Amino acid sequence: MSEYWLISAPGDKTCQQTWETMNNVTSKQNNLCENFKFHIPDLKVGTLDQLVGLSDDLGKLDSFVETITRKVAAYLGDVLEDQRDKLMENLLANNTDLSQYITRFQWDMAKYPIKQSLRNIADIISKQVGQIDADLKTKSAAYNSLKGNLQNLEKKQTGSLLTRNLADLVKKEHFILDSEYLTTLLVIVPKMLFNEWNAGYEKLTDMIVPRSSQLITQDQDFGLFNVTLFKKVVDEFKLHAREKKFVVRDFTYNEEELAAGKNEITKLVTDKKKQFGPLVRWLKVNFSECYCAWIHVKALRVFVESVLRYGLPVNFQAILIHPNKKNQKRLRDVLNQLYGHLDGSAAGSSNIGADNVDIPGLGFGQSEYFPYVFYKLGIDMVEQKI
């Protein structure tokens, strides 16, 4: 199961005691979940007013960072294309899989110095992830443009004779070239009208070279024919051909242009291959950055909400729970029995919506409210399409 619960409960005589009590009744005795201590360092508390204001802002930051993390993951899946099945093994945090990262979470002191205020740490994360989002937009626009151009050219290499590029189907000998008076046209004829074309193309106008048409190639529905005629009757020929449901394709045989067209595809394929490796590496690195930042936001939220709920001095134990999917309701009941005394109004009322809880800094903006601090935490980052 990819869902984890991040909770905190006030310290008893010691935080270790809180951990042991909770772990005993949920994991050891009832086998409802697997629990991990979630280490949050001694952060700067600041004033109560600052904490209340920060609580709301951290909720918004949480949503923002999660959205960008999912966006990076989803785009990595798009870029991998045929190798999309390898997406999960590429979604790592600090070079470990996501469950290992959160169950062994260690605060990154270098990136988010704990001597800074909580507000400053939140701002560092916001700027960092905002920059990743901006860079992603630039990089994805450039790569998508290249990919789109290549797909358009490749489409022209396949598909119906009505629309596809004819350059790789015709040869020099199919055309009368460098004539002052004569020209060769390419005509798309529906298969059911082949006999009609062969019997009647010479009579569509005057000045058509007799027996100058041959079938060059065909697909499921159409055939590609050439025909040679005098330049002065081209417009009249096109008009009469259209009346008979024969489609004259605009095409000029020019070896330099045809070579350039083939070179363009080769160049785009090469460019795409060149950009693929660095882009995948960038997405992997920045997915890791975003995911780690997101878990630090969760840690900040747990710290702020715990101080607001349980008071000072700071004394709480943060615990990461991996619920047994079949026993979630029972686990919830056990936690409510254990911590219901912390807030009578919330005990046993896991279905109370956030709309009913308008208490600044006390879980406001969550869809569920419990007597203990509670946040959901996911490791399935491609579950939702952003």
Automatic annotation (TrEMBL):
Q: Which GO terms describe its molecular function?
A: proton-transporting ATPase activity, rotational mechanism
How does this protein assemble? Answer: V-ATPase is a heteromultimeric enzyme made up of two complexes: the ATP-hydrolytic V1 complex and the proton translocation V0 complex. The V1 complex consists of three catalytic AB heterodimers that form a heterohexamer, three peripheral stalks each consisting of EG heterodimers, one central rotor including subunits D and F, and the regulatory subunits C and H. The proton translocation complex V0 consists of the proton transport subunit a, a ring of proteolipid subunits c9c'', rotary subunit d, subunits e and f, and two accessory subunits.
Instruction: Determine if Transport is one of this entry's keywords.
Output: yes
Query: Any idea which UniProt keywords this protein has?
Result: Hydrogen ion transport, Ion transport, Transport
Similarity comment text for this entry: Belongs to the V-ATPase C subunit family.
InterPro entries from the UniProt entry:
ATPase_V1-cplx_csu, Vac_ATP_synth_c_sf
| Sequence intervals crossing the membrane | none
Name of the protein in its database record: V-type proton ATPase subunit C
What GO CC terms are in its UniProt record?
lysosomal membrane; vacuolar proton-transporting V-type ATPase, V1 domain
Q: Which Gene3D superfamilies match?
A: 3.30.70.100, subunit c (vma5p) of the yeast v-atpase, domain 2, Vacuolar atp synthase subunit c, domain 1
Function description: Subunit of the V1 complex of vacuolar(H+)-ATPase (V-ATPase), a multisubunit enzyme composed of a peripheral complex (V1) that hydrolyzes ATP and a membrane integral complex (V0) that translocates protons. V-ATPase is responsible for acidifying and maintaining the pH of intracellular compartments and in some cell types, is targeted to the plasma membrane, where it is responsible for acidifying the extracellular environment. Subunit C is necessary for the assembly of the catalytic sector of the enzyme and is likely to have a specific function in its catalytic activity.
One short Pfam family name for this protein? V-ATPase_C
Q: Coiled-coil ranges per the record?
A: none
